[in-house]
Write a structure and sequence with these properties.
The protein contains 2 helices and no strands. The chain has 78 residues and is mainly alpha-helical. Helix 1 runs antiparallel to helix 2.
C-alpha cells in the first residue's frame, strides 16, 4: 500500500495528469495484492494436501511394518 501513498505526492504537488498517475498506481497495487493473496491461498492448499498425503503414506508404512512383524512372530510360533 506504500505505492498508493507515494502516488499521492504528485497530487499534492499539483503535477499535470497526477490523477492518472494515482489511478494507475492504485489499480496496479490492488491487482498485485489480490494476485498475491490468491497465490498464497493456492500454495497453502497444496501444502496441506501434500502433508495429508505424507501422513497417509506414513500410516501405511507403519501398518505394513506391524503386519510384517506379526507374520514374523507367527512364523516363529509355528
Amino acid at each position: 500500500m506504500i505505492p498508493i501513498v507515494f502516488a499521492t505526492y504528485p497530487l499534492a504537488a499539483g503535477i499535470p495528469q497526477a490523477s492518472m498517475i494515482f489511478n494507475v498506481v492504485f489499480f496496479i497495487t490492488i491487482i498485485s495484492v489480490l494476485l498475491q493473496v490468491e497465490t498464497i491461498k493456492f500454495i497453502a492448499r497444496k501444502a496441506e494436501f501434500l502433508r495429508m498425503c505424507y501422513v497417509t503414506y506414513l500410516k501405511l508404512v507403519i501398518f505394513k511394518a506391524r503386519y510384517n512383524l506379526i507374520l514374523l512372530f507367527l512364523k516363529f510360533l509355528i
